[in-house]
Write a structure and sequence with these properties.
By secondary structure, the chain is an alpha+beta fold. Helix content is 48%, strand content 26%. 6% of the residues are buried. The mean pLDDT is 84.
Length: 109
């Protein structure tokens, strides 16, 4: 009578442990990377929806300006006296004062 090789007995347990390890790794990646990014995106979208005339902002290209007009997808900025530019709304990075404060903290710290 032949006995089955000992390696075939534990094959089912190996598959289960591998699958559970993959699920745990996906959970860690989700909570450390995907979820915070979605939160940042929703906060930025909320910020863009709340833009109003008079806000001083900075764009992703580095332009500082005061908001003089807000449309659905376009923001008009006054970057100097009587100099106005239109930029895509999604290219506004944040408020100018908060960006300057963060830059000063990173330079000092």
């Amino acid at each position: 009578m032949a006995t089955p090789p000992s390696g075939s007995e534990g094959a089912g347990g190996g598959l289960f442990s591998t699958l559970s390890l993959m699920i745990v790794i996906f959970g860690i990646v989700y909570f450390l990377m995907i979820r915070p990014e979605k939160k940042r995106q929703s906060e930025h979208q909320s910020f863009l929806n709340d833009l109003k005339k008079g806000d001083e902002v900075i764009t992703q290209a580095g332009l500082f300006g005061k908001v003089t007009g807000v449309a659905e997808k376009v923001v008009t900025l006054e970057i100097s006296d009587k100099v106005k530019v239109k930029v895509a709304k999604h290219s506004v990075a944040g408020l100018a004062n908060s960006q300057a404060t963060e830059t000063q903290k990173s330079v000092r710290g």
